[in-house]
Amino acid sequence: MSKIIGIDLGTTNSAIAVMEGGTAKIIPSAEGRNTFPSIVEPIKGLVGDVAKRQMVLNSTSTIFSVKRLMGQKFTGKQAQKTKEIAPFEIAEGKDGMAVINLGGKTFTPQEISAKILQKAKADAEAYLGQTVTDAVITVPAYFDDSQRQATKQAGEIAGLNVQRIVNEPTAAALAYGLDKGKNETVVVYDLGGGTFDVSILELGDGVFEVKSTNGDTFLGGDDFDRRLIDHIVSEFKKESGVDLSLDKQALQRIKDAAEKAKIELSSATETEINQPFITQRDGQPLHLTMKISRAKLEELVDDLIQKTIEPCKKALADAKIEKSHIAEVILVGGMTRMPKVQQVVKDFFGKEPNKSVNPDEAVALGAAIQGGVISGDVKDILLLDVTPLTLGIETMGGVMTPLIERNTTVPSSKSQTFSTASDNQPQVEVHILQGERPMAGDNKTLGSFVLDGIPAAPRGIPQIEVTFDIDANGILNVSAKDKATGKEQKITIKNATNLSDAEVEKMKQEAEKYAEEDKKKKELVDKRNEADTLIIQTRKVLKDAGDKFGADAAKEMTESLDELEKELKNESATFESLDTKLKTSTELVQKHAEALYKAAAEKDQPAGEDKPAEGPKADSDASETKSDTKPAEEGEVVE
Amino acid sequence: MVKKTTSKNITELARLSSRVEELESNYKRVLADYQNQERRHKEQQVNTIKMASAALIEKLLLNLDSLEMAQTHLKDRGLQIVIDQLRATLGQEGLSVINSDDQDFDPLLMDCTEVVPGKKDIVIETVSRGYFLFDKVLRPAKVKVGSGA
């Protein structure tokens, strides 16, 4: 069976997606964009961006928003309202249905929609490198039987077997992954380019039931743009006395700039519109420069956003559902990127809306997932789980060192080499942890074991390879192997991924809540480890080559290290107090090491260019003191 | 007793062989996805290298437009040198101008922003130049097209 593509056949824009490697992916249009305008010039056969570009030239033969006419009677309210604003001719066709008259030919809305679907099919074939024959197409939840039938016909005209017609909110819910067997009520708030829809869905056992739907078929992002354009034009008129709305070219530039500004204001709180040489007055050029704040844009469109609330109220009332019973509010449509829209939705439903899926793509992605379910693509692959929390081990100073990060797809395996924390350490304890907190004690213990029989060696020398291997069923195997002796110990931990959602959520929240505190704790431990390493390394150097420094220097360093050690042993030592002492000691050690190296170099100078054997040794030992701090902190297992 | 075991074995065998078939088909499907992905990844990689600068150049075009508009007004020789320099630099990156003046209107390359008196379907004036980046349309030309009146 060939791939089943998902098509979001939208009023203003359409999008295509397909299941690949177990996830839904957007198929870019031939023009390289993730969505394309639902605009058709049927005589020359132009669709999408290309059709849009010649719209001004051929306004009467370029058809947009044809979705509004699908399955509609000519005398119906919807057809009549569309007729008022459409530059192309809408007439009465067979059985009183609305059709489009164009250059002496009659096109049904199905035929026009079919052109859009044909482009979707062609673009998908180019992307996939194979013929596409099957599709899942989405429609608004309020579409009645004849509108759904018309959509299906459009698919057939385009040469597609329409495997299923899916409700847009249902597709969006699928894309948001809300099909995992929970019984809950969700709201889908969809504010697109030209229409607004709100739907209440009840989910249970893989069945999606639309409890109610409401909206406004003439409210969307285009209205928001228009408000901004009007504002810019009127401000410019106030400033310069020139009415830019009379200048088509200037207006076009403002339109582009306004759309860009609107998008920018979703992430920035202020943006600047710069259009030099926008027009002329008395032979002098005039420039349009204007700062627009997010607050100003919000003020301009406030009533438009508020207009979406009434349909939400009605939808709730129709579904006979209290706001408190809503488990999730999901956002669809590009306009929901606007922070103010998100705020209004949050205030109304009393719930932070879920915006984890790209709102322009959610519906197409959901349609592709539905296609995957039909073709059997989805069933098996969904079993591939991810680790809900990070897995790692405890290292020196009670730090959690992660081996397998959160959200890693399993099966997965990872190894890292650790070493000992003190000289002649005969054994290491491998303490396996799960969680997001940087300190071991704050995470969940999954198990622990001891690897013994490590031959006597200075700290940092033994190499102990720790391997985490988690299989597709969530069974974690942890092994530790001493590379020198080949001695190995292991442990098997079942259900390492098997945590309830509530547990995972709780642990994630705690990690966020204590992030600041944890960071401080970890910094203190890191500093302690750094100090500890400096003391041990320098003492070693002093023991091996102390006489080369001279008695005074050695004494000075020993004293400084003793002081640092005292501070280290002091339970109430702070990050700052340790840091100051550590810095003093480090500088002192560096100073003497440098002097030693210089002296050695001078001594050896007459003997030739070659560097002396002893000099660099002292230098490299001293610099190791510094560079060793990092591996020591991350790479050592606590005894 | 013996018979029963056999029939049980047969059902078990049937179940397992259908399971094998199912897994085999899934395996092939995933493998096919992977190979397609590989192929596309390679294509994309070639494309990415070539088109890496596309987004930046597209933004710079707005500045080039502004400079050209300024030049239309100022007619300054120094400014002209600056513009030529910028054009030459972008040209080295694969940018070339879409020839639109006096051409037949082509929606693949041009975006009609206004219809004005003049020869029908012929570009009367280019409002903002269009550009190719290598063989792809980076930005269509914005043009005024003749109405035939």
UniProtKB/TrEMBL annotation, chain A:
Specify residue ranges for compositional bias: Basic and acidic residues: 597-633
Instruction: Supply the Pfam families for this chain.
Output: HSP70
Going by the entry's taxonomy, the superkingdom of the source organism is recorded as Bacteria
Task: Report if keyword Plastid is assigned.
Answer: no
Induction of expression: By stress conditions e.g. heat shock.
CDD domains in the record, alphabetically? Answer: ASKHA_NBD_HSP70_DnaK-like
Question: Which key words tag this protein in UniProt?
Answer: ATP-binding, Chaperone, Coiled coil, Nucleotide-binding, Phosphoprotein, Stress response
What positions belong to coiled-coil segments?
Answer: 551-581
Annotated region (Disordered) at: 597-639
PTM annotation (Phosphothreonine): residues: 195
Molecular function terms, GO-annotated? ATP binding; ATP-dependent protein folding chaperone; unfolded protein binding
Identify the GO cellular component terms for this protein: cytoplasm
Tell me, in a sentence or two, what this protein's role is: Acts as a chaperone.
HAMAP family linked: DnaK
Q: Which family does it belong to?
A: Belongs to the heat shock protein 70 family.
Q: What is this protein called?
A: Chaperone protein DnaK
Which gene holds the coding sequence for this protein?
Answer: dnaK
TrEMBL record, chain B:
Residue runs in coiled coils: 13-77
The principal localisation class reads: cytoplasm
Q: Does the keyword Phosphoprotein apply?
A: no
Cellular localisation = Cytoplasm
* Key words, A-Z: Chaperone, Coiled coil, Cytoplasm, Stress response
UniProt keyword Acyltransferase, yes or no: no
Originating organism: Candidatus Collierbacteria bacterium GW2011_GWA2_46_26
GO CC: one term?
A: cytoplasm
State its role: Participates actively in the response to hyperosmotic and heat shock by preventing the aggregation of stress-denatured proteins, in association with DnaK and GrpE. It is the nucleotide exchange factor for DnaK and may function as a thermosensor. Unfolded proteins bind initially to DnaJ; upon interaction with the DnaJ-bound protein, DnaK hydrolyzes its bound ATP, resulting in the formation of a stable complex. GrpE releases ADP from DnaK; ATP binding to DnaK triggers the release of the substrate protein, thus completing the reaction cycle.
The record ties this protein, via Pfam families, to:
GrpE
HAMAP family in UniProt: GrpE
* Gene Ontology terms for molecular function: adenyl-nucleotide exchange factor activity; protein homodimerization activity; protein-folding chaperone binding; unfolded protein binding
Q: How does it assemble?
A: Homodimer.
Protein family according to the UniProt entry: Belongs to the GrpE family.
Q: What is this protein called?
A: Protein GrpE
**Any GO BP annotation:** protein folding
Taxonomically, the superkingdom here is Bacteria
